[in-house]
Amino acid sequence: MAAIIKVEGLTKKFSDRLVAVDNISFDVEQESIFGFLGPNGAGKTTTINILCTLMAPTSGRAVVDGHDCQKAPRMVRKSIGIVFQDTTLDKDLTAYENLAFHGYIYGIRGSEARNRADEALRFVGLHDRKNDLVKRFSGGMKRRLEVARGLMHRPKVLFLDEPTLGLDPQSRANLWEAITRLPKEHGVTVFMTTHYLEEAEVCDRLAVIDHGRIIAGGAPAELKAAIGGDVICLKTADNAKAAAELKQAGIDARATEDGLQITAAKPESVMPAIIKTLADKVLSIRVETPTLNDVFLKLTGREIRPEEAKNADSIKEEVRAWRRKR
Amino acid sequence: MNDLGAIYVIVLRELKKFVREKSRLVSSIARPLIWLFMVGGGLSRLVTARSGIAYTQFIFPGILGMTILFSAMFSSISIIWDKEFGFLKEILVAPVRRSSIIIGKALSGTAVSSIQAAIILLVAPAIGLHIGPARFALTLAICMMVSFSISSFGLLLASFYESYESFSVIMNFIIMPMFFLSGAMYPVRMLPPALKAASVLNPLTYGVDALKNSVFALQAGPMGPDFPLGTDIAVIISCSAVLVFAATAASGRKG
Fold first, then answer.
1. Which of B75, B91, B228, B250 is the most exposed place for a label (fewest CB within 10 A)?
2. Residues A39 and A79 occupy one common structural domain
3. How far is residue B43's CA from residue A248's CA, in Å, rounded to a whole number?
4. CATH number of the domain that A254 lies in?
5. Inter-chain residue contact A102 with B8, CB threshold 8 Å
6. What is the pLDDT of residues B140-163, one digit of tens each?
């Protein structure tokens, strides 16, 4: 399939010392889910800002749906929908009014606008709340409403910047369910950023970015394979004996403090063999998925910088709370 | 393209929010009434009426100007809220020209403050000012023109600020001096030279003066208008054009 986003040698320098994006290149295929994985401050949001024409790159080129982001920004804007990291809804308007506003600025009017708004609200499961003010919505509902809004003008590409940041697990699951249906049901290409590996799992392709550079890329399975895959943790009555029996069956297990560990790219296909070999000697068995931290550790030799896991929104709120106190 | 639709919906949004926020409406009407009746009423004992105009009547055009100044500025500066809370991004990534966004915002301020000015204008009989239909229409038209230029000025200011904390700076160093040096409370011709020079440079002076021209039947006298209506309107229109252009240029893509 053809590439709908083409990025060549893209660089963004805010100053000599601060290079947010450093000569990155990648292609995104049509009707796929592309994930940009990395810690906050790695250059993900800057890249999105350039792709959606809010920022000019220092050098390099970005093409979205055949239009150059620099030379034809208005054409690019017509082809894209965006869900920013921080909410961009008008909290004093209702859900429906937010969508109607959006329709107008994208040239959708009248009954067409009403139908599309209703359709988009049903798609994200918010139709029964359409006349409620957005300020009464939970974080998850706001995000889903933003996805609905981003889809209303039927964009070719939907950008999602950390779509699940600050959401509870239930809302996160609801949102994911909606996002993963987009390419097949709506023909939309999804470009998303995240710093959760489990979310990156649903992507067709991933690019790992750190300090403005792409340090690895590929399908999630390939990336996980690069760090050896999932880890099966096993406990038996006699670990040494079990390890020997597994070795005979062609499974490599290493002893740890409290059991055995087996690394496998596809644990679900290795587990039956383990159970078969050890039968009722297995006391417990569980699978540990590598975290982004593991991938990161492997790729960069260091852990994800912890202070950056913070939501920009919550920082803003804290600053305000602090000001009020004074 | 859909720029007209965008301008329309930006204005519609402002009007919806304006109608919805009852407290904003009440306080924006209350401020000019407080000035008119409490400040004006008090000072009228101190200032002898000349040329047949009572002081409360004299400041009426100035109070209209104040209504417009505050509400148009508030409306325009609300774009800083949109910036801080993200809504502006929603507009900026849409396939709409920057100039349309600015014009939409300027017309939002114009609509909201013209409505408030119209409400204040209806209070005129309470202070003994009887404005005929023709003068009422002319006054309202001037209010709209002044609203548009003040809104554009607010947008130009807002483009320099990223957060709402700067609001008090704008309030104390721009809005208040603009009001006091506009001839709203005292005739410009009676001011000391330094203040007079500042007043002549203040665009609001011409707005207030145009309102004096249209509200009062009499044309001369120490408490009458300082400039001819034609001059006032020419200044207001050219200021609007320059400010809208500057605001568009200042809000252009950054980074």
1. B228
2. yes
3. 104
4. 3.30.70
5. no
6. 999 999 999 999 999 999 888 877
Burial call A118-127: b when 16+ CB within 10 Å, e when fewer:
eebbebbebb
Give me the residue from A14, A92, A106 closest to B94, CB to CB.
Answer: A106
Contacts of residue B204, defined as CB under 8 A and 6 or more positions apart, other chains included, come to B65, B69, B146, B150, B178, B179, B181, B182, B184
- Chain B residues touching A74 at Cβ < 8 A: 1, 95, 97
Nearest residue, CB atoms, B16 vs list A54, A93, A104 = A93
Is A107 in contact with B1 (Cβ distance < 8 A)?
Answer: yes
Of A223, A238, A264, the residue that ends a domain is: A223
Name residue B165's beta-bridge partners.
none
Region A39-61 average pLDDT: 89
Same domain, A148 and A49: yes
Is A117 inside a domain boundary?
Answer: yes
The CATH code of the domain that includes A16 is 3.40.50.300
Whether A210 and A245 share a structural domain: no
Subunit contact A105:B20, Cβ cutoff 8 A: no
Element (H, E) at A270: helix A267-278
User: Which chain B residues have a beta carbon less than 8 Å from that of A77?
Assistant: 93-95
Q: Which residue has the higher pLDDT, A314 or B248?
A: B248
- Host domain of residue B198: 3-41+52-250
Tokens of A78: 């017509």
Report the alpha-carbon distance of residue B7 to residue B9 in Å, rounded.
6
Give the mutation candidate from A48, A53, A104, A324 for the B interface (greatest B CB count, under 10 A). Answer: A104
pLDDT bracket for residue B51 (50, 70, 90): low
Q: Tell me which chain A residues have a C-beta less than 8 angstroms from the C-beta of B93.
A: 52-54, 77, 80, 82
Model pLDDT, residue A210: 87
| Confidence band, pLDDT 50/70/90 cuts, at residue A304 | low
